Amino acid sequence: MEKQFICIICPRSCPITVDTETMVIKGNKCMRGRQYVNSELTEPRRTLTSTIRIESEKVMLLPVKTDRPIKKEDLFAAMKKISKISVKAPIKIGEIIVSDFIEDGTNLISTKTILK
Questions:
Q1: At CA 81, angle to CA 80 and CA 86, rounded to 5?
Q2: Is 116 exposed, middle or buried (0-12, 13-18, 19+ CB in 10 A)?
Q3: Chain-centre distance of CA 79, in angstroms?
Q4: Which domains does the chain have, with CATH numbers?
Q5: DSSP H or E stretch at residue 94
Q6: What pLDDT, on a 0 to 100 scale, did the predictor assign at position 21?
Q7: Cys-Cys with 61: which of 8, 22, 51, 69 at CB 3.0–4.6 Å?
Q8: pLDDT at position 51, please?
Q9: Would the pTM of this model clear 0.85, i.e. be above it?
Q10: Per-residue CA distances from 12 to 15, 37, 45, 57 (Å)
Q11: Which residues share a beta bridge with 25?
């Protein structure tokens, strides 16, 4: 059986085909494409972006993201956890909101500075 992917690692967006029985990978123009497909087949990961509530004079939501990709299968659990988080201003961009979020070593961080 063949699976098709579009590599998202670099701007080339190589169309990659994989024979899942023989694990023959075709179409990648660099090794990063091969690594991407291997990762997608064995343990797909995504960087999660979302918003959390913030007590602020100006805004109600603070944009956040994970500082490393997490397992794709954990995204719904992560969103459930995010829905319960609230912070108070001031918050700086890059500030860790939750350490070891979903996985050890992965943090939920702010992607915007909110002073008031």
A1: 115
A2: exposed
A3: 12
A4: 2-42 (no CATH), 49-110 (3.10.530.10)
A5: none
A6: 86
A7: 51
A8: 98
A9: no
A10: 9, 15, 20, 43
A11: 18
